[in-house]
Amino acid sequence: xxxxxxxxxxxxxxxxxxxxxIEPDALSAMQRATARLIERSRExxxxxxxxxxxxxxxxxTPRLTxxxxxxxxxxxxxxxxxxxxxxxxxxxxxxxxxRLHTSKLNTKAPGGxxxxxxxxxxxxxxxxxxxxxxxxxxxxxxxxxxxxxxxVPGTHRNPVLSHHRNGVFCGAIDPADPLFERQKAVTxxxxxxxxxxxxxxxxxxxxxxxxxxxxxxxFFELMxxxxxxxxxxxxxxxxxxxxxxxxxMQENIVCGTQPTAPRLCDVPVSMPLPPPPDAxxxxxxxxxxxxxxxxx
Length: 296
Ligand SMILES: O=C(O)CCC(=O)C(=O)O
Prior knowledge:
The chain has helices at residues 4-13, 24-40, 75-82, 84-94, 121-124, 242-251, 282-288; strands at residues 15-18, 51-53, 64-68, 98-108, 116-119, 132-138, 149-152, 164-165, 168-169, 186-188, 195-199, 203-206, 215-224, 253-255. The protein is of the alpha+beta class and 296 residues long. Strands 1, 2, 3, 4, 6, 11, 13 and 14 form an 8-stranded antiparallel β-sheet that branches. The chain has a 4-stranded antiparallel β-sheet with strand order 5-12-7-10. The structure holds 2-oxoglutaric acid (AKG).
């Protein structure tokens, strides 16, 4: 369970850090599953439905930016996602009915693993309300050197900044945007098994991994089930017919039920359109969309 302080901190700052959120057995099962998946990536030479490859990846040097949809690849991740421990922590923030948007395991390889440029998740997938968050589970210790998540507190209550460049959605803000107060950013570090929760509208990013240790951060993006996606953006529902979308939404329910009535709130929305040439992951969106790097 979250403490009252953690809940109030999340509402005020747009994020919370929960130490020892994951039980040791569940953590080691996920660590072993991650090692197995990384091992499998040695056979892969191009990014595919499972792996996003980083520069320098090869059979002898597996280097990934991401393992996609880990909860569908190994029960170790699904057990945590659907377990009462996690959903119990989320109920005070999202209510009884919770739907998964997507899951991803961002793996920054030692010595340069890719930066994630500053952005608000909401810019990628606006919904009818913003009771939407990302859980970030540290599978290894995260410190200042291995590319931790950074957050600008309170920005979930501010306007959503432009994530467009040259008329195209590029999945990142301009680091020179006068509304970007980088000096206020905090760094989310912790031990393996700790977990952050960040609001979909809070500004965040992360630097390259400058250490000799991997940074493995597992994200579950979750929401109140009465948040309905606008225009089926962001891949998860893209191209689906209405019945197929309804089916997918129900498949993605983590607990409770999928209501047919969207809850409509007064939220700032800009569509992630026109799309960049490659919208298959945030790394590809930012690169192909020509995002300006804050970490160069
Ligand atoms: O891996 C990270 O450090 C941040 C990832 C992130 O913000 C995202 O994938 O949306």
